[in-house]
Amino acid sequence: MNKRHEYPAFLGSELGPQNPETSLFHIVPVPYEKTVTYGKGTEKGPSAILKASWQLEIFDGKGVPAERGIFTHGPIDCAGRAEDVISRIEKTISLVLSSGKIPVMLGGEHTVSLGAARAVRKSFTDAGIIQLDAHADLRNVYDGTRLSHACIMRRVHDLGIPFVQMGVRSLSPDEKYFRESNEIRCYDAPGLNKTGLPANWMPEGFPKDVYVTIDIDSLDSSIMPATGTPEPGGLSWYMTLDILMSIAKQRRIVGFDLVELAPVAGLHHCDYTAAKLIYLFMGAILYG
Ligand SMILES: [Mn+2]
Q1: Tell me: domain 3-287, CATH 3.40.800.10, correct?
Q2: Which of 89, 94, 158, 251 has the least C-beta neighbours within 10 A?
């Protein structure tokens, strides 16, 4: 199938050709899947999100985020060794960041966020990451590799980037110990569901520049079954929006990604949910 058809521009139904130099948002599709352990299909995630974006209402209730320009890059070449793919991601995200634009990466398995984290680390002396995820992703090695989707936040920790975890409800005893011994700030799903988002959740002194990684499995599995490792007891749609708005209000978002969508035939509402979350977050970034 030709790539243009497989990877249509985000909101291409509404927008004419977009100029990369004047577009604030740069969509970077990364159809990468190597270490997924349970349900497969994340390499189809970017394509499904782009296609679903054609169904979005361009007015988000407050304004039209698309007016600031949304340029869609061709998909990153995901052939070859994991390390090579991650380097390609880092290169592309670095280029977007250095031109003062906001990269919006579409995964692919969560491993792709390491390329973005490296780019963010290089471009900003002091940046933090906020992770929405059902899993802690803090394993040092998983299935024999340090570049597994289950290790992504451990690699971020190795880079010396501070981060906050939100929505977690599945982790190993080692990950729990690692969190505690490294004083990693976390707002796990059980607490968020019981008491809501605390007013002063942002750690004091957390960097001003923030990259957000949204693992779509942070959403409750009843509304997001289309992911490799769905977990019950997750975040509601509105809790997720509250978190994203709260981040956008308090910090400068330098980029974000949405990963781990594994489209299921017939469940197109999941693809649409992912596309809508991305578009609403663009709006939150613009309007604070
Ligand atoms: Mn994850």
Answers
A1: yes
A2: 158
